[in-house]
Amino acid sequence: MSRLRLGMAGGGEGAFIGAVHRMAAALDGDWDLVAGAFSTDGGRNTRTGERLGLDPQRVYPSLDALIAHERTLPVDERIEALAIVTPNYLHAPMAIAALDAGFHVFCEKPMAMSVVEAEAIAAAAKASGRQFALAFTYSGYPMIEEARARVERGDLGAIRLVQVEYLQGWLSQPIDTNGNKQAEWRTDPARAGLGGCLGDIGTHAFQLAEHVSGLSVESVSVDLTTHVEGRRLDDDVSALLRFEGGARGVLKASQVAAGEENGLRLRIHGEHGGLDWSQMEPNTLTLRWLDRPAEIVRTGGPGMLDATTTLVRTPAGHPEGYIEAFANLYRAFASAIRGDGDKRWVPGVTDGLRTMRFIEAVIANAGSDRKWTSMDSGDSE
Predict the structure, then answer these.
(1) How far lies 328's CA from each of 21, 243, 323, 344, 373, in Å?
(2) Which residues, in sequence order, are bridge partners of residue 32?
(3) Measured by CB atoms within 10 angstroms of the end CB, which terminus of the chain is less buried, N or C?
(4) Is 240 left (phi over 0), alpha (psi -120 to 50) or beta?
(5) Hey, what's the torsion of the CAs at 56, 62, 66, 67, to 10 degrees?
(6) In angstroms, rounded to a whole number, what is the distance separating the alpha carbons of residues 233 and 252?
(7) How much is the average pLDDT of 23-30?
(8) Do residues 241 and 251 lie in contact, with contact meaning Cβ atoms separated by under 8 Å?
(9) CB atoms closer than 10 angstroms to residue 329
């Protein structure tokens, strides 16, 4: 089976997430990176293309130039999909332009700057008939799929409690004012959008909670905080969640939890038992039962569900992590484009719209004196 041809917007020299996308896309041999508009800085753009071994004629100064030239190439040479790995404010215009040009899109999260922009992307994806995927990386871990599948088949019984936290400490000091480029744009409302920590990692926590529980959040009650003086966006989020069917949840996301690395943890409890997963120990899923001893399921080990084992690349005991989880999304994205019969789920428009509505509901609730805000309407009660 021939490899799919990938272009990239953003991800130039010195950018973290662009390199992660490239590694993930390359891991299973489904993709070849053949073109890019990596930076508005001409020198960085050129150097990135050179280091990636790309044809200089396909290293473009802008996305507009990329689209214009790629569309002139023979169908079997032009890119088939575009990876968007830019700051948030460019997601919507770039995604819509690529979809309108007939290219599939794999976009960094959050989906856009607002629900209105996200809905415009959704409309463009529907009109184009092209695939749109989002980089909710953690949903690509085998043990997350194992957890989701076990909840779906009813192992835990009716879900009652959902607790998710994502703790980082890297913004505990005002490094966004001291030249740290990754911190600068993430705390700039013009480039990041309405939420700081909320949009950056709060969306990951929210998406994972809904994805694994199989339940939709109906309303939120929030404490949204900025601890570092002078910072323009939030760096700490605490939210109570009301799920459909009566389940209750707690979401905690912080980037000022000094000493924390990437402490994403999910716990879900039903009437018969609960599960516990941590991103910093991603190959272990712990299941605890009301009436029998706890179980530990390991990536690649005995007891995994058949559907989950297809996400595993190595024998048990050989750790798989962040890049492999990301690669599972790129593999599912490739299968969706090819229509090869592999129905593996990949996060997309629905997840993007849900997380954008979550951001706006949190902002609305934080600015209100009402206790609860609806996820769908933004109305408070």
Answers:
(1) 11, 28, 9, 9, 35
(2) 5
(3) N
(4) beta
(5) 180
(6) 16
(7) 97
(8) yes
(9) 25
- Give the residue among 306, 264, 322, 344 at the shortest CA–CA distance from 27: 322
Strand positions, DSSP E, 217-365: 217-225, 236-243, 248-254, 263-270, 273-278, 281-289, 295-298
C-alpha pair distances (Å), 223 with each of 152, 171, 181, 293, 346: 31, 18, 27, 37, 31
Distance CA 34, CA 49 (A): 10
Pair of tokens at residue 266? 């999910």
Phi/psi region, residue 129 (left: phi>0; alpha: psi -120 to 50; beta: rest), is: left
Give the pLDDT score at 349.
98
- The chain-wide mean pLDDT, for the chain, equals 96
First and final C-alpha spacing in the chain? 55
Q: Which residue has the tokens 């048990």?
A: 316
Token representation of residue 52: 């990636």
C-alpha distances in angstroms, 167 versus 170, 253, 365? 10, 6, 22
Question: Which two structure tokens, joined as six digits, stand for 371?
Answer: 């206790």
Question: Which of 122, 375, 66 minimizes the C-alpha distance to 251?
Answer: 375
Residue 244 carries which side chain, given as an amino acid letter?
E
Q: Which residues pair with 380 in a beta bridge?
A: 373
pLDDT band at 380 (very low <50, low <70, confident <90, very high): low
Q: Is residue 121 over pLDDT 70?
A: yes
Asked whether the beta carbons of 249 and 193 are under 8 A apart, the reply is no
Give mean pLDDT, residues 9-30: 96
Which amino acid type is present at position 113?
M
pLDDT recorded at residue 236: 98
CA nearest neighbour of 45 among 18, 27, 21, 72: 18
